[in-house]
């Protein structure tokens, strides 16, 4: 079996659902259920015996040691993290606690577990750490895309905390020989994304007739990848990646934020003409820029394509169409995540512009 952390969040839940649909191997899913963890994401596998959900913190060493001893996973995939840049700007502490301190405690327990293994079990064990392209910093308009050897230059408390966790993972391989794999992926979108992030926020506000907040001039560039393609890349790295190696994951879909938002508005004009305000573009509202806002991210994914034969299945056009359709088809999920905590966040981040 495998152990997945953060499997009630956006990418982790998509990974667990795809895994259970595609193979028979059981999954233990360890998630703290922070504001971003949502068991509704896993509703379709409720009662599935191959899925064991455990609420808990990756930094809880006794809990982690007990899970490892009891279930003896052959691999661990670490999605658990604080993940939202704007939240890290308002309050970095949770990011340091989970992404740095939590990852450290988790690695210590994984190391002890792996050290006690022998033979093939030890040789085949893998710890896969899921990271982000944001650790590489910000690109100018004509710079080459990030490769696995681009120097780290994180600019936000979030990306600095992820960079720290990547360095710890790297050090545990270099120093102790722990068989680690690290993936650095670009911006994901798709079903079950918490509506603090650009695409689900825009979907939710647009159908409610609320402003669509664009930071700064709207010309920051992100390199978008459909979440199912990120999950298939992680599976490819887990099964055939070389221990100690880093793999960048991306879909060559660079878009400005304003282009992304206008694309969603145009789709909604056709698919949801009953919204209170149409055309939906009328809702676009330029707001104060994010502090330290990275201008451009772009991933060079040639290594994973060449060495592991991975390719994304979705273009941005097909992926965003699926995503818009999913949010429209799942109003109950959207209503469920719009909790008190979510409303509190919107008030804090956007104030009277919300
Ligand atoms: P998310 O915020 O939607 O989910 C994070 C999950 O981790 C939640 O279920 C939360 O409850 C859980 N969690 C948080 N702290 C925990 C702790 N201490 N112990 C156990 N569980 C804890 O995040 P996401 O967007 O799904 O991102 C998952 C991972 O992928 C993160 O490591 C993130 O840095 C990375 N990543 C995200 C993107 C993206 O575009 N969203 C892109 C590249 C990499
Ligand atoms: O690049 C990978 C990263 O992508 C992940 O590591 C992070 O976990 C994930 O949150 C994401 O970070 P971003 O900051 O790029 O994503 P976000 O959806 O928050 O913002 C995308 C872009 O849209 C960014 O340039 C900021 C802008 N934005 C965002 C929000 C929430 C707006 O213009 N308005 C908004 O209201």
TrEMBL record:
Entry's Gene Ontology molecular function annotations: dTDP-glucose 4,6-dehydratase activity
Pfam families (UniProt xref): GDP_Man_Dehyd
Biological source species: Sulfuriferula multivorans
Enzyme superclass (EC): lyase
Stored NCBIfam families: dTDP_gluc_dehyt
EC number: 4.2.1.46
Any GO BP annotation: nucleotide-sugar metabolic process
Start and end residues of each NAD(P)-binding domain: 3-323
Family named by the database record: Belongs to the NAD(P)-dependent epimerase/dehydratase family. dTDP-glucose dehydratase subfamily.
Catalytic activity line of the entry: dTDP-alpha-D-glucose = dTDP-4-dehydro-6-deoxy-alpha-D-glucose + H2O
Name of the featured protein: dTDP-glucose 4,6-dehydratase
Keywords carried by this UniProt record: Lyase, NAD
InterPro entries with a match to the protein in the record: dTDP_Gluc_deHydtase (IPR005888), NAD(P)-bd_dom (IPR016040), NAD(P)-bd_dom_sf (IPR036291), Sc_DH/Rdtase_CS (IPR020904)
Listed cofactors: NAD(+)
């Amino acid at each position: 079996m495998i152990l997945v952390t953060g499997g009630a969040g956006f990418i982790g839940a998509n990974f667990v659902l795809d895994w259970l649909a595609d193979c028979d191997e059981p999954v233990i899913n360890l998630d703290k259920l922070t504001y971003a963890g949502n068991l509704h994401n896993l509703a379709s596998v409720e009662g599935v015996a191959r899925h064991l959900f455990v609420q808990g913190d990756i930094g809880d060493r006794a809990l982690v040691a007990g899970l490892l001893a009891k279930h003896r996973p052959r691999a661990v995939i670490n999605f658990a993290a604080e993940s939202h840049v704007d939240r890290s700007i308002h309050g970095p502490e949770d990011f340091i606690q989970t992404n740095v301190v939590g990852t450290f405690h988790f690695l210590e327990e994984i190391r002890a577990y792996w050290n006690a293994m022998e033979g093939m079990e030890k040789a085949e064990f893998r710890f896969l750490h899921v990271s982000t392209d944001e650790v590489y910093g910000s690109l100018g308009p004509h710079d080459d895309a990030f490769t696995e050897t681009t120097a780290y230059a994180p600019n936000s408390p979030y990306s600095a905390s992820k960079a720290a966790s990547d360095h710890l993972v790297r050090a545990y391989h270099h120093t102790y020989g722990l068989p680690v794999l690290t993936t650095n992926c670009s911006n994901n979108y798709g079903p079950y994304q918490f509506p603090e992030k650009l695409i689900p926020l825009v979907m939710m506000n647009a159908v409610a007739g609320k402003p669509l907040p664009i930071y700064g001039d709207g010309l920051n560039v992100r390199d978008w990848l459909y979440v199912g393609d990120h999950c298939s890349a992680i599976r490819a790295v887990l099964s055939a990646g070389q221990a100690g190696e880093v793999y960048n994951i991306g879909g060559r879909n660079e878009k400005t934020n304003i282009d992304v938002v206008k694309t969603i508005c145009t789709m909604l004009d056709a698919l949801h003409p009953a919204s209170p305000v149409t055309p939906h573009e009328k809702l676009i509202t330029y707001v104060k820029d994010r502090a330290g806002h990275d201008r451009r991210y772009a991933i060079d994914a040639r290594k994973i394509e060449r060495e592991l034969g991975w390719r994304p299945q979705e273009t941005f056009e097909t992926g965003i169409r699926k995503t818009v359709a999913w949010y429209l088809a799942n109003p109950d999920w959207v209503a469920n995540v719009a909790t008190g905590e979510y409303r509190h966040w919107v008030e804090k981040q956007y104030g009277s512009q919300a």
